[in-house]
Amino acid sequence: MRQFFRTLHNYFFYCGIEKAEYNEVKKDAYVSNFIIWRLLHIFMAIIFGLLFFSSIFIDILSTNRALYFGAFFYSTLAISFFFQLEKDSIFAQFLIYLSISLLFIFGCFITQNNPNYPSATFIALLLITPMFMIDKPFWMAVELCGASIVFLIWMRGIKPEHIWQMDVVNVTIFTIVGIFLNIIANSVRIREFVLNREINIQKDTDEMTGLKNKGALTREINSFLADESCNSGFMFMLDIDHFKNINDTWGHDIGDSVIVQLGNFLAEKVPGSEILGRFGGDEFILVVKNTDDEEVAKKLAQEIVSGASENITIGKTDQKVSLSIGIAIYRGEEKNYSELFKKADIALYKAKADPDNRFYIYE
């Protein structure tokens, strides 16, 4: 029984997955909502604009002319917000829920104009809107229940008793159906996001170290260089001195162990906000953002060189590992990964040629 309630809780609050998983893909869901509802608002603006225009010439539509114009005006206004807001912002989510609420109010007005018939527009909205919203199903359940209660209270004194009773039955049934449709749609879409995230992580992760691989490094560094708000940083290119000798002398298993140890050491040493990964073989790339201070680069390079020597072991021997680091300072000039990479690569070769200094800054 406890497992049943836990499963039910997860479906209502986290779309059928665990809380930690949901939080990891929540922003993806918000972005998906943003894109879908921006398109829906454009569609609504077109539809309500056509209905308003038609109501000028068609008598049967003239009763709802003011509603059509109001819906058209709101949809157009909302579109302007959607082109200014961040895709994963909370305000964008709020705007979507506001639009859903106003759609239900629109359904109430349409029903009020036809009091002698069971509600069709409102019930259609109960079924359709939950299919286009990815969020905790609990909130959509609150939205649907609240809208249904308002609708039934609103129509109580407007509709004939027998029609209102039919609406009570229909609205109750379709509110429940709408909630379950939302739960099903959310669980399917969220699991897609989880699966896509896992695939992307596998695609971008170096299997040996768990750090970013070459493809992920290239993409993230290019993104960093293209960001106009970021105009400073520095790139470290690191590799292990005489790594081929380590493989030849102690075997590839020991060589792999050294690479794994270096990856773990760098992951602990470097904040997660920086770009860090294994470029290939025994080469690693580190990009530190938002500083072009050479003293900061030198201090970090020295800490990495000495820390690696102290913490990384070659099998069960007492032999120390040494690193060489080439450093390229970024001051907003380079526009792509390869330009900065070439400078760091040149600096790395100069660092290897100097036995007294294990790092070198490109000049």
Question: Helices and strands in order, then pairings?
Answer:
Blueprint: H1 2-14, H2 19-55, H3 59-62, H4 65-82, H5 90-112, H6 121-128, H7 137-156, H8 161-204, H9 214-226, E1 233-240, H10 243-250, H11 252-269, E2 275-280, E3 283-289, H12 294-311, E4 323-330, H13 337-352, E5 359-361
Parallel strand pairs: 4-5
Antiparallel strand pairs: 1-3, 1-4, 2-3
What tags apply to this protein structure?
363 residues, alpha+beta, five-stranded mixed sheet, 13 helices, 66% helix
Your description of this structure?
This protein has 363 residues and is an alpha+beta fold. Helix content is 66%, strand content 9%. It has helices at 2-14, 19-55, 59-62, 65-82, 90-112, 121-128, 137-156, 161-204, 214-226, 243-250, 252-269, 294-311, 337-352; strands spanning 233-240, 275-280, 283-289, 323-330, 359-361. A five-stranded mixed sheet has the order 2-3-1-4-5, sandwiched between helices. Helix 2 (19-55) crosses helix 5 and helix 10 (243-250) crosses helix 11. The longest helix is centred in the middle third of the chain and has 44 residues, at 161-204. The chain is elongated and about 95 Å long.
